[in-house]
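Run log // design_07
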């Protein structure tokens, strides 16, 4: 069977929906190339001295791993010259990186978490890269304010998983597609489309070590899952927590489930970043028929107030997300 490449998929999307102008296609191709390079470094691991700490801290005061730094450099460098971007922001950059005026400037804003799941780098568990693309408001400098748009404005979002296979999951607003890297050819090929998240599930993902800090609606939901067949849900639930959002979300795209990193007494705003973790994942999951809220409202409707702001995340199978959200009302 002949499988489509990312380029062929995007050209087909443009033909059907008119949603992928050449500039956006080129931007996504540049990101896909950078992802291949990062994936290669991840695979090399200790052989390329990629494991361990970089001895520095990022903007949120978190210790950076060598791979956090390398992944950020690869993505920034790959996008500098492309001509499609006006500016970019990453978990590792405090302020927007505005494309210098001597370089060609485009009309998109790129937001990224270059290396998601940092705590799993050194233990050989799946990690990834998450990205989101926003339009740059016309006629203005691509400063911090230009980035503060709700997630529903995203024109593309995606994430890579560096696992047993390197995968790239992508949406340009009409469904979600998954590509697998053929390492011999160095090409991503379409391996799943459409992706549909079942509305119901019996599998949840949450870091239970935070239980004592949870708000009552979250505690109630998980207690009911744990009560299984003998509880109000009258069915047994399974639990999975990879601690790499990319891997947990990919599992949900594969067989359904609910993923939660709610705000709690310790993580008062939430733990995950709105602009380059929650928003892209919310768009991807919604494009698969799932739902994503912060426990109260739809993530894609949240008006950001800061580049690196955090948010509670509840996403996955629609009926379960709606249940948790209803418990908060
Ligand atoms: O970037 C945040 C992240 O690494 C996510 O990928 C993951 O879901 C979460 O943190 C894991 O958090 P914890 O360390 O609390 O399990």
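design_07 sequence
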């Amino acid at each position: 069977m002949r499988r489509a490449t990312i380029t062929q998929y995007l050209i087909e999307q443009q033909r059907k929906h008119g949603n992928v102008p050449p500039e956006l296609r080129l931007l996504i191709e540049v990101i896909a190339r950078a992802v291949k390079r990062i994936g290669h470094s991840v695979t090399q691991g200790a052989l390329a001295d990629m494991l361990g700490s970089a001895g520095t801290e990022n903007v949120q005061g978190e210790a950076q791993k060598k791979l956090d730094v390398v992944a950020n450099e690869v993505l920034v460098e790959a996008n500098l010259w492309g001509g499609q971007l006006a500016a970019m922001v990453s978990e590792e950059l405090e302020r927007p990186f505005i494309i210098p005026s001597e370089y060609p400037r485009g009309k998109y804003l790129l937001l990224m978490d270059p290396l998601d799941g940092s705590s799993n780098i050194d233990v050989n568990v799946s990690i990834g890269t998450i990205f989101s693309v926003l339009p740059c408001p016309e006629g203005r400098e691509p400063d911090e304010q230009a980035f503060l748009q709700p997630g529903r404005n995203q024109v593309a979002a995606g994430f890579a998983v560096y696992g047993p296979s390197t995968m790239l999951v992508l949406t340009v607003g009409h469904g979600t597609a998954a590509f697998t890297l053929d390492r011999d050819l160095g090409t991503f090929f379409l391996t799943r489309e459409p992706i549909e998240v079942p509305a119901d599930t019996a599998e949840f993902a949450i870091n239970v070590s935070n239980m004592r800090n949870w708000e009552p609606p979250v505690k109630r939901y998980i207690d009911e899952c744990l009560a299984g067949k003998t509880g109000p849900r009258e069915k047994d639930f399974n639990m999975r927590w990879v601690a790499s959002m990319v891997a947990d979300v990919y599992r949900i795209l594969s067989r359904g489930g609910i993923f939660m990193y709610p705000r709690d007494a310790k993580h008062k705003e939430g733990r995950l970043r709105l602009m380059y973790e929650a928003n892209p994942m919310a768009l991807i999951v919604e494009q698969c028929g799932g739902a994503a809220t912060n426990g109260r409202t739809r993530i894609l409707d949240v008006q950001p107030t800061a580049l690196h702001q955090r948010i509670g995340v509840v996403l996955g199978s629609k009926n379960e997300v709606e249940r948790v959200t209803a418990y908060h009302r």
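Residues 116-119, 207, 243-245, 261, 272 surround 6-O-phosphono-beta-D-fructofuranose (CB under 6 Å).
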